[in-house]
Every structure is written in structure tokens, then in C-alpha cells.
Amino acid sequence: MLRILFSIFIFISLLHAQEEDKGKKIEVTAKNISSTKTTVTGSDGVVVYYGDSVIKADKAIYNKETQLLVLDGKVEMIGYMGSKEHSNHLEIQTDKDIVTFKDLFMVSKNDVWLYTNKAINVDGNYTFGKSVLSSCEANDPLWKMAFERSKYDSEDEYMKIYDAKIYFKDVPIVYTPYMAFSTNNDRASGLLFPLFGFSSSEGFIYDQPIFWAIADNMDLEFNPQIRTNRSVGMYATYRFVDTPQSSGMFRVGYFKDKPSYVEDNNLIEDTHYGVEFNYDSSKVFSDYMPNGFTDGLYINTIFLNDIDYLNLQKSRLNHYSLTNFQESKLNYFAYDDDYYAGLYAKYFIDTSKTDNSDTIQILPQVHLHKYLSSIFVDNLTYSANLQVSNYTRQKGATMQQVDLKIPIEFTTSFFDDFVSLSIGEDILYNKSYFGNSTFPHDQFQYYSNTHKAKIFSDLTKKYDTFVHVLQPSLSYLKPGYVSQKPVDFDDLEIEQQNLFTVYKPEENYLLSMGQYFYNEKSALVFYQRISQSYYNQRVNKLVDLSNEMQYKWRTWTFYNNIVYSNQYKELRESSSRIYFSQSSYRFGVGHTYKETLPDDLTSVAPSNDLNFNFGYTYSDHIGFNGNIIYNLDSAYSEQWTLGGYYKQDCWSMTASLRRENTPRPNNQFELQDTFYVQFNFIPFITVGSN
């Protein structure tokens, strides 16, 4: 909407230069000039210099008594911003600074034109008669905006348009009886363009944004909406910039369902409401901290009673995912080259539950970290990481935990740096306190130290047409001293064990190898990373084998990543894709496979999906794109999109048809088929509908 108004403002600005003191200087030149006692007449090459504009005409008559300058014939005005205005008749009341046009045609420097049957300027206040505006060819415009009359106040830079219609060819597609807006680049209060839509279950959908520009650094947008089969609701979003380094958004919303809709869809809740707050700052207390320290604050919070609070929004704020399990997060951090400190808080809401009193919250968590540093000698390094966490909830066991990790490592090289060796020690200390319930042991302490050794190399060889980098390594880990008090972790109550896990080191060997091939331009052509661990104390000594590869050949990319279970002799997971891209078209085919094996029945959801996506640019004006996810087990596609675009210099259109799996209340999912179309009338307005 602002783009409409600003472009119209260009026309007005180009019509006359910015107003100065009353009474602009006028200079008239012509090849033939004659005068009487009261008039001066010029013809043949008439040029008028009026303010910052140059006006050409066939004939000019100036009345000395009335101080009226009349221009006739082919009148052409060149404005100070580079536009051209054409008219059959122009009158300038020089003493009162009143300018009148008849049959005015204007073209701006960005090829937007306007035709009006009459235009009057009085002291910077403009009135237009019937007008037509477009950026397409004037003879047969593909789109145009027509309005009965309009007014413009140059001092307040504000435009009012009455009875406006937007036509595609000769078909009206949008009408508004009144439109008011600011014509400069500043945000202005008013109505934004609405959202139209239709749903088989919700009926006709109408969302009308109302924008309030409170100040340069803040605004408020109201979004009342109607869903004819469902009911009405309202969302409001407050946006602000409080410092040059920080900004935020605050949103509230409420929607009340009709009883018939609740009954037909078996909903538990008949109201959907929520509050959201996002804030990001890259500087909070840095000015008051020691030199070298930088800090920041990130807040992403949401409170809602069910997932439909998000589904009913016209546009969603940035959160982690559209699922029934929502996370709120607050992170404050400060750091320099040696240290990092963080204060965190996490709050979770499971909208599939009617009561979240037993949901674990992390309020708060303190994190201190010492970056890698040398001690005594350069190749003896250490780091330290400390976390203090409070896991709380109203119902069920709670826990306060201190977790300290200190890795120490010594690294050296042999054989002219062809082989490197590192030996190290990992020290782990954990202390947990349990509450909100009665247990035989209300605290638990765990300590372990682990011995590590690694032999590795980083070899590079240059050939005639490529460079090969080889990085083999062999690691060995051996548990040291382990202490668990007052009992072993496995002897704690199940409710206590569900709160956390402890790292129990096992003796193992890890063999890994990475290799990389680069072409003559140092671009990566091929890489492979493979690793295999061996646990000599286990019955199944060989654990999962992982192998990742990627190869680029011209405009083709081939990728594969597999995890193979040696214990069960089958794939645990696999991801493969082939991608092709060039200037006019692209496509990709991928396959994702995940198997639920007996040792992991809860954390992995099985999948066997084929993914295809493409994009095709038919010409400079037409393009197509789409994707589909097809489940090979069910032989059914739950998600797909097919769309395209058409664009010209003065307008463009984007359309798509898609199917999405949308989360609904009660932990259910609903397949939704959506058609989307958007018209962009360059450079003014975008019209879209779902």
C-alpha cells in the first residue's frame, strides 16, 4: 500500500517543484512575442521557466492585470525530478500560485503514467479529477487503477483517493471507496491490503490488517478476521526498535469458535488464544563490562492454549517449529577471547495436554566456559565447561544439577610432521539434587576420568589436475576411575533416572578416515568421511558404521550418507540425493530412509520417503517449480507443491497449489490443500489470496 502512495507522490512532486515562498519567478521566451496594454502573447517555440520546471507550449498568453498565464496547444512540462507532463491547457495564477491543468498526462522517470481530466494546485494542495494510473503500455494497459477524484496535501504529504478500482485488462478485481495514505517513504497509519481465502471447513476467510504508525521506531498492527463457518477473532502485533542494536515484537491473539464448528470437528477448546514476544539485542551491558567483552540477549517466547492459535494467524512470528510442543527461550550471554558466560531459561508447553503441570521446565540454567588455552607449553591445552541447571515443574520430581567437564590434551608430531599423536584426559563431575517428591536418596554424585589417545595424519599431495587431502586417524578411549554415590545410577528410582543420564565411558577404538579432492581452481570435487567404532567389552563389538560421500561433476551433485548397524545387519538410516542445476532449469531427487531397530524404539520415527523437486525457467517471463514427498511404504504422497510465475515489466503473477500436513489440537494432523495466487502490479501493490 505504501508503494502505491509513494509512486503517486512522485507524480505530484513531478507536477510542480517543491513549494517555496509564495510567488515563484516566471520567465517566458518565444520566437514571436506581441503585447498590448494588458496582455503579452508568445508563440512559436514558447518556453516558460516556472520555479524548478521548464514548460514548452505552442502558445502562451499572460494577462498583466489578472496575473494569469495561460498555455495552450501541446503543453509539455519537464519537472525537477525528470518527469514529463503533457496537457492541452494549463493555467498559472501567478499571484496566488494556483495551477490548473486540463486533460493532463504525466509520465514519471520509472515509466509510470497518470491521466486525469483535470488537476488543480492551490498553495500546495492538489485536487485531481477522474484519473487513470498504470505502469503498462498506455494504449492497452494490462492493469490500471482508476479513481473518481483525489486530494493531496503537499505540506502534510498525505493523499486521499475516492472510489478507486484496480482493473486487470478491463475486469475490475479490487474496489475501495476510500483510500488515504502518506506519500513519502515514512510509514503511515491506515488500512493494509486484506487477505482473502476459502476453506471447505471454515468457509470464506477475510483478514483486514489495520496499521498504526505510532512513531518512527514503533508501530501496531491489528488483524481482525472473519471465518464464516467458524467465527471471528483478532490478533494484534506491536513492533519496536528500542536501540540501534535491538528490536522486538509482541503479539496477542484470540479466536472464539462457534458451537457448531466445535461439535463438527470434535474440538476440546472452543477458544484459541496466546501471547508471543520476540526480542534480539546485540548489545546490552557491553559499555559497562571489562574491555574486550561483548554481550547479547535473545528472547523467543510463546504462551498458547492450543496449536490453532498459530494456525489461525495470517503470518506467524519466528518460532522453532509448528508442532503441538512449543518452546520458549531466553538467552543472555557475554564473552571475550578467553571466556564465555550464559544465563538461559527454557519453558515448554505441550498443547496436546490439558494440563502442563508435569512438563519439565529449565528455569534457569547458568553456563560458564573457558576456551581452549595452553598451560606450561604450547602443545599442552585445556578447556573447562560448567553448567548449573534447575529442572522444575509443579507435579513430579524436580532436580538441580551441577555439571563440570575439563578436557586436557597434549599433542606432538613425528617424522617431519607426517604423523601426529595426542594423549589426553577428560574429567567429568556431576552433582544432582532431587526434590518435589520423596526418594530413598535425594542426591546423586558422579565422577569419572577417561584416558584418550589418538594417532592421526593430515596428508596433502598435488597432482597435475587435482589436489588430494587424506586425513586418517585411530583413537583409543579407556575408562579411568568412576565414582557413583550414594548408590549407582541404575539403583536410583525410575522417576529420578528419567530426569537425566550419566556418561558411562566404555573402552573403545575409533577408526576414521576423511579424504578430499580439489580441482585446479581449489573447488571441492569429492569428499568421503567414514568411521567405525569397536567396543571390546561388548557382546556386539562392532557398532554402527557411518559413511558420507559427495561428488560434484559439472552441474551435477551426488550425495549419500548411510549408517549401517553391524549388530542387526541392516541399514539404520540412509540419505541420498542427486541434484542438477543450470541457468534455465534445476531438479533434484532424494531418498530418506530411517529404520526403527530394537535398540532404539522410541527416539526414531521410521520413514521411507522419496523427494522430488524441480524448477524450470521457460523464458524471461515464465517459470515453474514444484516438489513432492512420496512415502514408498504407504504408496501415498502427503506433501506436495506445484506452482509457477508470469512476469512482465508492469505486472507479475505467482500461483501455487500445495498439500500440507498441518498439526491440529488433540495431537492430530490434518491434510490441507491450498491454492495461492498473488498479483503484483509494479510498482504499486501486491494482491494475494489463499
Task: Explain what the structure shows.
The chain is mainly beta and 690 residues long. Among the domains are: 25-188, Lipopolysaccharide (LPS) transport protein A like domain (lipopolysaccharide transport protein A fold); 353-454 and 477-490. The protein has four helices and 43 strands. The chain has a 30-stranded antiparallel beta sheet that branches. Strands 1, 2, 3, 4, 5, 6, 7, 8, 9, 10, 11, 12 and 13 form a 13-stranded antiparallel beta sheet that branches. It is elongated, with a radius of gyration of 36 Å.
N→C terminal distance: 19 Å
What structural class is derived from the secondary structure elements? mainly beta
With helices defined by DSSP (H or I, 4 residues minimum), what is the helix count?
4
Low-confidence stretches: 1-22
How many individual β-strands?
43
**What does the largest sheet look like?**
30 strands, antiparallel
Q: What assembly state would you assign to the polypeptide chains in this entry?
A: single chain
Q: If you consult CATH, what is the topology of the domain at 25-188?
A: lipopolysaccharide transport protein A fold
Query: What value does the average pLDDT take?
Result: 87
Backbone shape: elongated
Binned, the helix content reads: under 10%
Protein name: Outer membrane protein Imp, required for envelope biogenesis / Organic solvent tolerance protein
GO cellular component, one term: cell outer membrane
GO biological process, one term: lipopolysaccharide transport
